[in-house]
Amino acid sequence: MSGRRWLGCCAIVLCAGVSATESGDLLRSFSEMSLETPVVLHDQWSVSDPLDSDAFKTEYSQYFNQYIDVATTLSVRAIDCANGVLPQADAYESMTDLSRLYTSVAETVTRSQTQLRLWQDLNDTAARDRLAELIPSLTNAYSRLMFELSGCSGFLYGELVN
């Protein structure tokens, strides 16, 4: 699927060559992902099925869930790093209330998954539209978590510690 793109300003930072660590690998993987709205992704889809076709809804659901899975792993790792469960870069100082951000993200993910299921199972186009309204909140929050992990893990400084 051609819906994968770099995530804005953070992608530039994440392209720097640094040694491989679990956080580094996760940050690189996530930087190559994006979460598009159903309409935008459908416009990029190479199949001519309609937006509300079962085939596209299945494709979108897989795409959405893959993004959420990687983003959730990144989020948990960012929180573990910020809380000292993982080694922290020497220059690291938390810039975000990660617990509050993660709680907000979890609530938005739950609402998004509900809208996705309503669209997929009941062909509720209003749910598809509500899902599209939630996507920017998710991508923004995950970008903030990505930036936090970049700092905590040392990725921003070119010396990964976890």
Q: Radius of gyration, rounded?
A: 17 Å
The major beta sheet can be summarized as: none
Please count the beta strands (DSSP E, at least 2 residues each).
0
Helical segment count: 6
How is this structure best described in words?
With 162 residues, this protein is mainly alpha-helical. It contains six helices and no strands. It has helices at 8-14, 22-31, 38-44, 54-82, 98-122, 125-152.
What keywords describe this structure?
elongated, mainly alpha, single chain, 162 residues, disordered N terminus
Quick description:
This protein has helices spanning 8-14, 22-31, 38-44, 54-82, 98-122, 125-152. It is mainly alpha-helical and 162 residues long.
In terms of topology, how is this protein built?
Layout lengths: L7 H7 L7 H10 L6 H7 L9 H29 L15 H25 L2 H28 L10
Helix pairs in contact: 2-4, 4-5, 4-6, 5-6
